[in-house]
Design a protein that fits this description.
The chain is mainly β. Helix content is 7%, strand content 21%. The longest helix has 4 residues. It starts with 16 loop residues before the first strand and ends with a helix. 12% of the residues are buried.
């Protein structure tokens, strides 16, 4: 399992989001217009913040 987090997002104050299904960071997530959920553009899974996972 690899964790490739875009360095341009790290350290810039922007959240790095992670998809547990695709097992990679997501730089361009989708936001649901109805419920404002942040989801993976590839598989539709709700994304998690890397700092909440303890892996970043």
């Amino acid at each position: 399992m690899t964790m490739d987090f875009p360095e341009e997002l790290e350290g810039k104050g922007e959240e790095v989001l992670y998809c547990p299904v695709c097992q990679e960071s997501v730089a361009d997530p989708l936001v649901c217009g109805d419920c404002a959920a942040v989801i993976c553009r590839r598989c539709g899974t709700p994304l998690e913040r890397v700092d909440e996972l303890g892996i970043g």
